[in-house]
Amino acid sequence: MRIWASACLLLCLPASASAAGLFSAVHPTLACGDDAILRTLSDRTISTQQSPAWRRTLMRQGDCHNVTPDIRWEKIANRNGLPLMRRVPPVPGLPPLYFMTGEIAPIAPGPTVAVASEDRTPPRTPIAPPAPVAPMADTPTGPQHTEAEDSPPATPPVIVQPAETPRPTDIFFMTRGFQKLGSLILTLMLVCGTGWVMVLVLRATWRMARRRKAINICVELAQRHSPMLGRWYQNAHDTRPGSASHTSWGTYLDRFAHGTILPTLTRHGYNTLWPDIHKTVYGHITAMAARTANKPPATAIPPSTYHQDMNQAEYAAFCSQWIEKAGWEIHPPVATGLGSVIQCNRNNLKMLVHCWMDRKPVHDDVILQGIKEKTDCKASVGAIVSNAPYTQEALMLGKKHRIFLLHHEDIFKFVSGIEVPDVA
């Protein structure tokens, strides 16, 4: 018996507990899904100044409903000072609504007490029929109960509220990050590829410009020494009987390259390009030497008269004649890689004069050649004679190594002893 009493008590507890959280409207009122619109419609000062059409429009926008006291509600929240209520049982299509604070009140008695009070309500006095009619005897005089009322209430349907999909918090999804990252990677790849191609193009252009500059330097040196190269070419290709040359043209080219071209390229910083340009340079030198060798000899000019069309041998003979007139014993001029060398002696004083004829200013390569020849011959006095002016680098180099840089008009005065240094 105690077990059944406990079971009944447990069954009654949920019903009374659920009834404690139920509310109903105090009187027919208005409830809306938007709290701001509910406040506006409940303000009589604003409502009296507007038209009925305006009120209907606001009710439609705020999803407002007319609520009667017989509907039960459950409080789910309190937002902005207004209670948010949900209907019990839920009705499909009816969202939670806001009520004004004074328009809703909790239901005091539970469902069991309500049933008892309904039972204690005095029954309605039946209305007597006007006449005792037999067929009307079967008409019930009390409250009528239908089969639908006797059947247990149907289980209310479960309303699945459409839940808001939570917005992602990952920055990649919020800003379409993967798409932007892919675009960024593609852009970086294009920029890097374009930059690499531009670097390759600029590097190739720079190397081509350096090669062209180095070739021009070599061709200019070959033009300076064209008479010597022409003689070498003629000696290497001389096929007359009894004058067979024992030195090939390739040997002459290598001698000129190692003695003249490579030192000049090294001073200008182009020596690393020589393996790439030596074939082209050799072709230019060979063509130039062949043209010089096949050129008919010019009309001989007396050595005592200077002329700008002199070749290197004639210029050396012209200078040696003035040295000899000054009282020096001379040896015949010897052609070298750069100009001609005249060895002179006077009173056991040895002097070496390097003759160089050119239309352009004399560079330091000619000075270095004169210094080398003076050192090899162990001469006491060294001088370089030219028809052209000297560059600043050549002047500084000659002053450093005590090489006298002269013009051919000053050679007689110099060797006559006016400017001969004291070598005793």
UniProtKB/TrEMBL annotation:
Ranges annotated as spanning the membrane: 181-202
Keyword list, A-Z: Endonuclease, Hydrolase, Membrane, Nuclease, Signal, Transmembrane, Transmembrane helix
Biased composition (Pro residues): 123-133
Stretch list, region Disordered: 115-156
GO MF annotation, one: endonuclease activity
Highest taxon listed in the record's lineage: Bacteria
Residues annotated as signal peptide: 1-19
Name of this protein: Restriction endonuclease
